Automatic annotation (TrEMBL):
Annotated ranges, domain Aconitase A/isopropylmalate dehydratase small subunit swivel: 35-103
Gene giving rise to this polypeptide: leuD
Top class in the EC scheme: lyase
Name of the protein in its database record: 3-isopropylmalate dehydratase small subunit
Lineage, uppermost ranks: Bacteria, Bacillati, Bacillota, Bacilli, Lactobacillales
Top-rank taxon, per record: Bacteria
Subunit structure, interactors included: Heterodimer of LeuC and LeuD.
EC number annotated for this UniProt entry: 4.2.1.33
């Protein structure tokens, strides 16, 4: 797994709920190829999909991913190859869904006040450091434990379980 993530900032505010990340009006879609078309369609940046490049980072305030437990919200970000979500805090279920799908979700106090949309960012998961390369702001991030890093390094919980099963460490 690449532990150094570099990309453009896409900034959102506080309390970005799952209906802003993936609006319920699109819930009929179940495949990632369809779901990803509607990432952030309910937010104040409905052009997110057109503006995002693989590896870009989402920066947000507090309580990112609040609302429902729908996994679609995390799937749509994965489908758009978001490099990580860096926020001041996360809703618990969204945090777990994102990790299980292999998306780094990183808590960084104060991040929302220091990053502007379009800034060039760098996140070092291994060193636990976040940098805004545009304005020079640097901050430590809350480290992810070894188990979460293992999930991320396999691309999600299902690929990790497949790998462990094939190694005989987990039985079917």
């Amino acid at each position: 797994m690449e532990t150094l993530r570099t990309g453009q900032a896409h900034v959102f505010g506080n309390n970005i709920d799952t209906d802003q990340i993936y609006p319920a009006r699109f819930i009929e879609y179940t495949e990632e190829a369809d779901i990803k078309k509607y990432a952030m369609a309910g937010s104040d940046n409905p052009d997110f999909v057109q503006e995002t490049q693989p590896g870009d980072l989402i920066v947000a305030g507090t309580n990112f991913g609040c609302g429902s437990s729908r996994e679609h919200a995390a799937i749509t970000l994965k489908g758009n190859q978001v490099g990580a979500v860096v926020a001041e805090s996360f809703a618990r279920i969204f945090f777990r869904n994102a990790i299980n799908l292999g998306i780094p979700v990183i808590t960084c106090p104060g991040v929302h006040a220091h990053v502007q949309a379009g800034d060039r960012l760098q996140l070092d998961l291994k060193a636990g450091e976040f940098r805004d390369l545009t304005n020079g702001w640097t901050a430590p991030v809350e480290p992810l434990d070894e188990y979460i890093m293992n999930i991320l390094s396999h691309g999600g919980i299902k690929p990790l379980m497949r790998a462990l099963t094939s190694q005989g460490k987990v039985r079917d």
